[in-house]
Write a structure and sequence with these properties.
Helices cover 11% and strands 32% of the residues. It is mainly β. The strands form 3 sheets. Strands 3-4-9-8 form a 4-stranded antiparallel β-sheet, with no helix packed on it. Strand 5 and strand 6 form a beta hairpin.
Length: 164
């Protein structure tokens, strides 16, 4: 007895072997082969950044404020750098040593990186960063040139004395 096949415009299409088990198996194999090829061609590269933390960026008249969620990270494991208009926050959440069998893990570990290009000129000398309750708060003051300035408008009064 033969197995049924689906005919599509005169062509016979068979389901690939293993399709029912895991549809991404071929993709995983291809990705592994490509990684091996890249490593053999270029050499061992630095490990890629695993994830980007969640953040909020707000702007006030005198500064940009960045709040980055990185719970469980110690401030000594975080690096904040400013280069021109770009702010870069990098660090690592170290995996805890555990006893027993780990049954499930959904917490993020490993290296992280957050990059932000600010839309205006900033004063990199006065950047302030503080850690509180797993949130890194960074205040990036705007440069004096970039701050909005209110211009007073004077009215010229028309007096008969000025006309001669």
């Amino acid at each position: 007895m033969s197995t049924p096949v689906r005919r599509h415009r005169g062509a016979i299409q068979d389901r690939p072997l293993g399709w029912a088990r895991n549809p991404l198996t071929e993709f995983d194999q291809l990705l592994g082969e490509m990684s091996g090829l890249m490593e053999s061609t270029v050499g061992g590269a630095a490990p890629a950044v695993a994830w980007t933390p969640l953040a909020d960026v707000t702007e006030s008249d005198d500064a940009f404020h960045v709040e980055i969620e990185i719970p469980g990270v110690k401030s000594k494991d975080i690096n904040v750098e400013a280069n021109g208009q770009e702010l870069v926050v990098t660090g690592e959440i170290k995996e805890k040593e555990r006893k027993g069998v780990l049954r499930r893990s959904t917490r993020r570990t490993g290296s992280f990186e957050y990059r932000l290009r600010l839309p205006g000129e900033v004063d990199t000398e006065k950047i302030n960063a503080r850690m509180s309750d797993g949130v890194l708060n960074i205040a990036v003051p705007k440069a004096e040139v970039a701050r909005p300035r209110h211009i007073e408008i004077s009215e010229k009064s028309e007096s008969p004395e000025s006309e001669g």
